[in-house]
Amino acid sequence: MDDDTRAQSKDGAALLIIDMINRFDFEGADALVDKARQAAKVIARLRDEMAARGGPVIFVNDNFGEWHSDRARLIARAMEVDQDIARIVEPSQDDFFVIKPQFSGFYSTNLPVLLPKLGVSRLILTGVATDICVLFTAADAHMRDYDIWVPADAVAAECDRRSRWALEIIGNSMGARTEPTGELALTKWLGGGQG
Predict the structure, then answer these.
(1) Helix crossing, 160-174 with 135-143: angle to 10°?
(2) Which of 74, 144, 174, 184 is buried most, with the most CB atoms less than 10 Å from its CB?
(3) More confident call, 70 vs 141
(4) pTM of the full predicted structure?
(5) Cα 89 from Cα 45, distance rounded (Å)
(6) Taking a C-beta distance cutoff of 8 angstroms, is the pair 13, 50 a contact?
(7) Residue 96: its pLDDT value, please?
């Protein structure tokens, strides 16, 4: 059985983990690291739940200006630094890994081709930063008619106010769910849809 068939979504859902394989060595990262670590713990639980359901987990990761980079190099570089975020969410061999050149996970990547191939119509968006890459990916997902859940406790931004602002836009303008995992469980979202 090939990878695409094995990872076919049985309930139309996929988990996207955005920019969590990261050195967090950019300006402003100090304000983000602790929040990203907390989000990583929630993301790891969601990933385990998705894997148990046999659903696809897709890392959508910035290339951080390394235009010759690949999955292995990005993971190795993230593991070099003295923070445990990449270790908490470390991709498994079964996880997909999409490298993006810009904010949105859909822009100039194979994600628009991969998701239909996997039978995906619903996306759980997690990662950093809520007000940049998560927001832009959510907007592109919305324009492609995906049902979206962005759990508020599975995303992080440098500024809490901007994170709340982004979640409001995602919820109000895109019709997405934004409840944290403590209020909306994965099984409930999958069973209840957007209603």
Answers:
(1) 0
(2) 74
(3) 141
(4) 0.92
(5) 9
(6) yes
(7) 97
Domain 3-190 has CATH 3.30.720.200: no
For the cut 70, the answer to whether the pLDDT of residue 3 exceeds it is no
Sequence-distant (6+) residues with CB within 8 A of 187 are none
Nearest to 178 by CA among 194, 162, 161: 194
**178: Cα within 13 Å, side-chain hemisphere:** 21
pLDDT tens by residue, 59-89: 999 887 676 678 888 888 888 887 799 999 9
Distance of CA 183 to the CA centre of its chain: 19
CA distance 103 to 136: 6
Task: Give the per-residue SS3 of the chain.
Answer: CCHHHHCCCCCCEEEEEECCCCCCCCCCHHHCHHHHHHHHHHHHHHHHHHHHHCCCEEEEEECCCCCCCCHHHHHHHHHHCCCCHHHHCCCCCCCEEEEECCCCCCCCCCHHHHHHHCCCCEEEEEEECHHHHHHHHHHHHHHCCCEEECCHHHEECCCHHHHHHHHHHHHHHHCCECCCCCCCCHHHHHHHCCC
State CA 125 to chain mean position distance. Answer: 4
